[in-house]
Amino acid sequence: MADVASRFVRALTVTERAGLVRLRESGPRGSRLRAEVILLSAARVAIPEIGRRLGLSRPTVTSCLGRFERSGLAGLPDRRRSGRPNRISSEVLHHIAMVVKARPRDLGIQGTRWSLTRLRQYLVEAGVVPALSVESLRIAMKRAGLAFTSPRIGQIQKGVTTMIPGAFEYHAPSTIGEATALLARLGDDAKVLSGGQSLIPMMKLRLATPKHLVDINGLPGLAYVREDGGALRIGGLTREADLEESDVVQRRYPLLADTCRAIADPLVRNMATIGGNLAHGDPANDHPATMLALGAEVVAVGSGGERKIPIGSFFTGPFSTALKPDEIVVEVRVPAPKPGSGGAYVKMERKVGDFATAAVAVQITLGAGGVCEQAGIGLTNVGSVPIKATKAEAALVGKRPDDTAIKQAAQLAAEAAQPQEDLRGSVEYKKDLVRVLTGRALRKAIERAQKGG
Ligand SMILES: Cc1cc2nc3c(=O)[nH]c(=O)nc-3n(C[C@H](O)[C@H](O)[C@H](O)COP(=O)(O)OP(=O)(O)OC[C@H]3O[C@@H](n4cnc5c(N)ncnc54)[C@H](O)[C@@H]3O)c2cc1C
Fold this sequence. Notes:
Number of domains: 4
Number of helices: 19
Bound molecules: flavin-adenine dinucleotide
């Protein structure tokens, strides 16, 4: 049976993995558990260990894996493993008809001519279909009367365009009222488009296939950075580059300044917005942990009016937030730092521009005698949601943050991390990384607090 487990590892496609994650987080009760079993197996966790972690017997785990192997999982895009050919939807056939008009190499597949194998490789890698046998593809193409023609030069020919994302309708409202009314009417079929730096890549991989895009870039008055009423107010459409260059951020919010500099690269930062970074709900994004450390508040406007959401209850799961489908993030509010405050963001990335292997955000306030009055610690990419290391924070408050206190807080932060093993490292490595990065961030934040911010 160990073989079955390892076969999943080789066979899970990007779309299938995303579907399993979705089921694990929000599927019906039974599917949630089954999806978790399959994902653990795909992460090469052995069957006895899966049973131990989930409190299941070995036969239950084995039978769940076997059933998935034979017939897939209800709620996932169709994945027949029984040897019968998959049914291919007319939308996919339409896609194939356009794809085969381009050269394989134009779409990232080696070769100058299409073959069934190359086409199947493209369709699975691009996430157009979750899994597909060459035989199913041959039968579907024959039934639809599709054949490979001579390759044409380039993807775009006169009158023929190969779309990588799914088809969608584009809306460009000019007021917030118009935008929220549209979102309320279109419901789950619509997505807000801001900088497009996360949404567009997901659409290109077909991990997101919204039927409608509501572009909010034309909404006036949503891009600003100013201190007002005891808080730093950042408009939802503020670009990372503008936040990074903001004078008040540079002078008074070093944690935020560090974070902006650590996000992606200048090209991405020119487009990406603070609202999009938080609304995307990606635990690998950098702002969420920083906002947790800063105790920020998200202001959202929907068709029912305005709502203030404390950052602590904003992230509800991987890629999920407390936002309703018709709500737009219009502002992020960060409490103004008290005297004696300092902050720092320390990120470990494999190369410049990458998401964090792990990162730690610290905001600290020192009172009389250098005693810690307030501490905020947020962790990036070491859990299914950004993590607030509350025990580590509590361990600092009321003490002078000397070496012993820093070490203790760093250890508690590492214990709060719940990373998963992946290409960036093992669970043990990532936890230890959190310990080291927390120590560094604390020391930097304390030094800044002692210098006055
Ligand atoms: C090459 C590359 C590297 C990257 N590296 C990093 C990195 O190191 N750190 C990091 O944090 N991020 C990184 N990112 C991700 C990206 O920077 C953020 O996710 C980005 O800030 C998203 O903002 P956006 O405006 O582009 O959002 P979009 O892509 O337009 O939208 C993202 C999601 O948020 C929703 N949304 C957007 N704006 C709003 C709003 N105002 N109200 C409600 N919902 C909204 C959209 O519907 C969508 O679901 C990287 C991206 C790329 C392409």
